[in-house]
Amino acid sequence: MQSLCEFSDDTKEVLLELEKTRKDFWNVDRATANFLNMLIKIHNSKNVLEIGTSNGYSGIWLADALKHTGGKLTTIEFWDKRRSVAQENFKKCGLDGIIDARLGSALLILDEMRGEIEQGIRDSFDFIFIDANKPEYVEYFHKIDPLLKSGGIIAADNTISHAKKVEPYLKELLEHPSYQNQMLNFEAGLFLSFKI
Fold first, then answer.
1. Among 21-30, 34-43, 95-104, 181-190, where is mean pLDDT lowest?
2. How far apart are CA 36 and CA 25, in angstroms?
3. At 187, is the pLDDT very low, low, confident or very high (cuts 50, 70, 90)?
4. What is the pLDDT of the chain when averaged over all its residues?
5. Residues 115, 118, 120, 124: what is their CA dihedral angle, to the nearest 10 degrees?
6. pLDDT score of 3
7. Angle made by CA atoms 92, 58, 30, in degrees to the nearest 5
8. Please, what is the end-to-end C-alpha distance for the chain in angstroms?
9. Which of 18, 93, 152, 189 has its CA 20 to 30 Å from the CA of residue 30?
10. How many angstroms separate the CA atoms of 120 and 13, rounded?
11. Which letter does DSSP use for residue 121 in this model?
12. Using CA atoms, how far apart are residues 129 and 144, in angstroms rounded to an integer?
């Protein structure tokens, strides 16, 4: 069971409201969100990337964990309307100060981020959560691998519910010599990859 007791009353209220529209926005289930929150704390992640902001539900869980580790979240959303909704939700939860919500194609933004890392403008990521366009997962991986520190984690959602669409991604990671992987049987499937 996952309670919301660790959150402020404002955050609890926002999360409960967002859970009512979960299917409309393709949000993760609460168990997956809670697990990601715990994993960030356990791993002591400081620089987290989310691909697929939607209405901000998962971002709230990720950013709340980062309050404990002293970290920051960068999240990418293709649709302006969804990013605007997410930003409003982040603000209601008092998390907007530690979240950089970027708008546009994840593939293009990831290229920009690589340049920022190479120029020393930003640090590499130590935790990346993927929950966006399923057929693009493998392309995301090719772009995020250079952005992820050794010892970093990639968590990919919908790897059971959309197994066929993410098959190239799973195959790539399972055959990759630099990653240790495990499929977790959450509602939609969560595939964890640890960069050796």
1. 21-30
2. 18
3. very high
4. 95
5. 90
6. 75
7. 105
8. 31
9. 152
10. 39
11. S
12. 11
Q: Which amino acid is at 59?
A: G
- Alpha-helical regions (H) of 56-186: 57-69, 80-92, 106-118, 137-144, 167-174
Lookup result for tokens 């593939």: 107
Q: How many residues does the chain have?
A: 196
- Which residue do the tokens 């409201």 mark? 17
Per-residue pLDDT reduced to its tens digit, 90-145: 999 999 999 999 999 999 999 999 999 999 999 999 999 999 999 999 999 999 99
Amino acid letter for position 172: E
The domains found in the chain, sorted by start residue, are: 25-195 (3.40.50.150)
Number of continuous H segments (helices) and E segments (strands) in the chain: 8, 7
The Cα 146–Cα 103 span in angstroms is: 21
Q: How far apart are CA 142 and CA 173, in angstroms?
A: 10
